[in-house]
Amino acid sequence: MVLDGAALTAGDYSESINYEVLKSRAITAKSIRLIKYGIWAYFLLLIFEGALRKWVLPGLSTPLLIIRDPVALWVVFKALQRGLVPKNGYLTGMVIIGFIGILTAVLFGHGNLFVAIYGARIFLVHFPLIFVIGSVFNRDDVIKVAKVTLWLTIMMTVLIALQFYSPQSAWVNRGIGGDSEGGGFNGGALGFFRPPGTFSFTNGNVLYFSYVAPFVFYFWLNTKKVNKLLLIGASIALLAAIPLSISRSLFFQVAISLIFLMLGISRKPEYLGKMIMAVIAVFVAFTILGNTQFFQTSTEAFSVRFESANESEGGLKGVLGDRFIGGMLQAFSSSSDLPFFGKGLGMGTSVGGMLLSGQPGLTITEDEWGRTVAELGPILGIAAILLRVSMFLKIALACYKKLALGDMLPWMLLSFACLNLPQGQWAQPTALGFGVVIAGLMLASLRAPAPVDNEYS
Question: Contact, 375 vs 364, CB < 8 A?
Answer without folding.
Answer: yes
